[in-house]
Amino acid sequence: MSIKVGDVFPDTILTYVPYDANNPEACGLPQQLKTHEAFKGKKVVLFAVPGAFTPTCSEQHMPEYVQRIGELKGKGADIVACVASNDQFVMHAWGKSYDVKDDILMLSDANGELGTALGLVNDGTARRMGPIRLARFAMIIDDLKVVYIGVEPAPGVTVSGASAVLAKL
Q1: Catalytic residues
Q2: What are phi and psi for residue 69, nearest 5 degrees?
């Protein structure tokens, strides 16, 4: 069963490599992000992609969020985060390729724990991408409560894009 508007966001652990403004070329040590601790009392825009560096994710999904980060924050988003099934080092490298610094938190759900808890995973085996891949979606979480969720019904970016999220903030 998939998460829906009104549900409490699951308490899971994701990983990330923090951006270091003093040494932006370095790849630091992975950190854990406990979702309930990090998201409590905050308005969070979370968008999920099946894989970093993949065509739709890199050509459509991520660029719009990068371009519209100021608008998202201006409409009240305390945290804007991207999550994918890749490991935290790949997510860090993908964020660096867009120069997101710490504007967008690049999160890893490499074990599929968040996707499974949300009920938003796909089997990528046929595409040689592994058995657990996040679905393409976006959500707005306000003090741990899901207030918007847009899950893509087909390939492409519509309800999970930054424009759709901005319309709901």
Answers
A1: 57
A2: -60, -40
Strands 13-16 and 121-122: unpaired
- Identity of residue 75: K
pTM of the model: 0.92
pLDDT digits (tens, 9 = 90+) for 14-49: 999 998 888 777 778 899 999 999 999 999 999 999
**Distances from the Cα of 152 to the Cα of 11, 45, 143, angstroms:** 23, 16, 24
Token pair listed for 132: 């657990």
- Which tens digits make up the pLDDT trace of 58-89? 677 789 999 999 999 999 999 999 999 999 99
DSSP string across the chain: ----TTSBPP--EEEE----TTSTT-----EEEEHHHHHTTSEEEEEEES-TT-HHIIIIIHHHHHHTHHHHHHTT-SEEEEEESS-HHHHHHHHHHTT-TTTSEEEE-TT-HHHHHHT-EE--GGGTS-S-EEPPEEEEEETTEEEEEEE-SSSS-STTSHHHHHHH-
